[in-house]
Amino acid sequence: MQALVLLLWTGALLAHSSCQDSAGSPQDSPDPDTTGVPVEEEDPFFKVPVNKLAAAISNFGYDLYRVRSSLSPAANVLLSPLSVATALSALSLGAEQRTESTIHRALYYDLISNPDIHGTYKELLAAITAPEKNFKSASRIIFERKLRIKSSFVTPLEKSYGTRPRILTGNPRLDLQEVNNWVQAQMKGKIARSTQEIPSGVSILLLGVAHFKGQWVTKFDSRKTSLQDFHLDEERTVRVPMMSDPKAILRYGLDSDLNCKIAQLPLTGSMSIIFFLPLKVTQNLTMIEESLTSEFIHDIDRELKTIQAVLTIPKLKLSYEGEVTKSLQEMKLQSLFDSPDFSKITGKPIKLTQVEHRSGFEWNEDGAGTAPSPGLQPAHLTFPLDYHLNQPFIFVLRDTDTGALLFIGKILDPRGI
Q1: Do both 122 and 76 map to the same domain?
Q2: What pTM, to 2 d.p., does this model score?
């Protein structure tokens, strides 16, 4: 059957529109514009300042994901990179030029000609955390005890990022309680309280938290959910609850270069999830991971074809709590941990000590309606198409309006992170 799919779906094969260097960052096309303007400028979508900023920090997010995944190749990965990017972007308000440039390069701001990055970031945050999105994201900068912070840093921080810095008391129990209370308030109690004490010796601690509970445009029939096999590899399987829809309307394409089937399912609030499913359970996911950029995902969004398919997808409820400090150090940000210049924040030498990330992500049968949107007319297929997420896969949660990467996951075992 796969040979038939390859034969009949030549029109839906996805060509890579953006190359990458070994670090995973976008490069110009083989025929670059002689003015040096990035290739994505040619697409009107990226001319909107909010979308352009979303693409930049999403590319940071794909970089962070790649490093995180390489550090734990045999484990699930769940990340909301935007919350980490927000914390770094906010911190850059207090950095002098050398340190600011280091942060801005990591966030791809050096490819944007936007005199008001932080004002545009405020617009982006408002757009992606609108109530109908079901997405919550918050970031916070935490400083060592007794630090005197300049009001010239606090004022723009509040204005653009809607947050105030926190200064530690030095009492680990009280500090943990305060941080937990803040997370609970920001996430409406959707993320469990941490039991990890705030480490001693903190100079600057960045905290990024996020939660998403998706609601499909077309809900699944819970009566069709059943325990089915998920293939961890060629030899091992586990039984997990799998949701099914024998007549699912989805957008589909087969990428012959990456050797994977790509599907996109719409969510309420102008959101969508894109799945990357290798053709073989033994296939390494690295090649898919290395291809991920904002521009590639945007092209996928334009090129996938609407079809009807037999769909099975595992119910997911995942959470993550831990550090992404080492990942950031591997992303040319080591100088922030060594000898940065944050003299716009305080007169005392301070440096980044730790970056924490907490996230929760779930989807189940819940949806807005029982029938597909009337505007979705699937292409007529002469053969039945199956799309079964019953082996390791990668997913990308994307805000359709801005193109922002909100969550990314590598699911090797859907039973838990």
Answers
A1: yes
A2: 0.89
